[in-house]
Each structure stands twice: as structure tokens, then as C-alpha cells.
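Our consortium's second objective concerns turning raw sequence data into structural hypotheses that experimental partners can test. To show how far this objective has progressed, the report includes one record in full. It was chosen at random from the queue rather than selected for favorable results. The single chain below, 283 residues long, was entered without modification.
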Amino acid sequence: MGYPNGRRGCYNSFALDISANEKLVSYAHTMSGMTIALIAAGCISAGTLLGLVLSEMVPGHHLDANSKDAVKIGAGMISTLAALVLGLLVSSAKGSYDSTNAAITEGGAKVIMLDRILSNYGAETKAVRQELRRSVAATIQMLWPEESSRDLGATSFERAAAMEKVLKHIWELRPQTEVQRALQAQAQVLANEILQIRWVQIEQAEVSLPMPFLVILLFWLTLLYTSFGLLAPRNATVITIMLLGALALATALFLIVEMSHPMAGAIKVSSAPMRKALECLGQ
């Protein structure tokens, strides 16, 4: 039983992506988060320094009490907008990370359940259980290549389609009793759910934060710190606090970008649930 042309084409396309990127994806996402954080720190700090310079250049009556009150109102509005957007982005990124982590944990538990069901089916499922073990090992190698102690020798296509082989073998079982028929049905459901979890993770990996969104947010933060610098006195304490605030906001953007890609980068979900599942298989 082979793969339909359309499905194999889909797998081949995905396998090529894996082959090209599996060793670079973690580094690329880390650099993306670090780059955005550094750019943010630079822009916000530059806005602070620009405000301090402008405070010495503008005429004195432009910074009288009434003018300062007007600037404070504008800064307060920008601050509120930026705080709301930052809070929503952090919440969304944390939600994405938590859902991915939960899916990995759920997938590991279902793999163990599938292995136990196949074990209860009978000795004829030995080959299927071995294929399941290879599938889990291939998944770990594919999603966490930096943690793999050895190359399994599988091609990119084989790693992408490993769970499909398990499902195919389950379909090919020939149950002889009602109990075996019930166990086969349960195994098919679990295998499909594991496969769905896997494809959801693959699709989620393609989702990224819109760059215009980050640019606009960074523009707001730069304007905000420019207004702070415009009103603040010029001394070492003020400048230090402003720069530390810029660094804090930059790290917040770093967290947002990194946690939006929970399968790559510096903040990556743990492989422990899948490794634990791999240890339990075949027992």
C-alpha cells in the first residue's frame, strides 16, 4: 500500500524543508530573537538620547509647565497603548508555548497508551511496536536534532512519514476475536490523534509574528522614551535608569519572539515527555 501522489508530494516538500533547515532552525530563531532585542534596545536608547539632546535645543518656553503637561498626556496615551499591546503579546506567546508543551506531553502519553494496546493485542504486533519505537526516535531526532546523540540513518522523508507507517501497519492487522477488533479500533484512533498532534506542531512552526506589528510597537516605545528624555534632567542616574528600561523592554520583545516559536530557539519546549515515552516503549 503506497502513498497517493498528492500525499507523497506533500511529504516530499516537507522533507526537503527538514533537510535544508533541521540543523539551522534553532540558530536562526535564536538570532531572530536576539536581533530584534538588540534593534529594540538600540532604537529605544537612541530615542532617550534624542529626547535629552532636544531638551537642550528647543526654546525654553516650549518646555514650560503647560507644554510639559501636554507632553505627559501624549506620553501617557502611548504608554497605555504600548503596555496593552506588550501584555497581549506576552500572553499570546506564553499561550503558544504552553499549548505546544501540553501537546508534546499529551503526545508522549498517547504513544505509551498505543504501545500498551498493541502489546495487549498479541505477539503479531511486535513489528508494529518496533516501527512505533523507530517513529518516536525519528520524531525526537527531527524536532530536537541538537539533543540527538547519534544519527538514526533515516532520510528526511522517512522521518516525516514514520507515523504514517505505524498507522498503515495497524490497518493491515487481521483481528481474530472481538477483543482484538476493539483493540485495533482503539489503536487506530490513538495513532490518528498522535499523527494529528504532530502535524499541528509542524503547521504551528510556520506561524510567526507579523513584522509590521513589531515595527509599530517599537516605534511607539521609541516615541515614549523620546518624550521621557525630553522632560528628564540630564544626569548619570537618569540616563542609566532610562537605558536599563530600554534593556528591559528589549528583553520583553526577545521573550515574545522566542516563545512564539516554541519548537526552536533559546526557549524551546522540553523533549523529556517524548524521551520518557521512548524509554517505556516495548516494556
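The partners drew two points from this record. Residues 65-121 form the longest helix (57 residues). The chain has one domain: 5-280. Both points have been shared with the crystallography group to help prioritize constructs.
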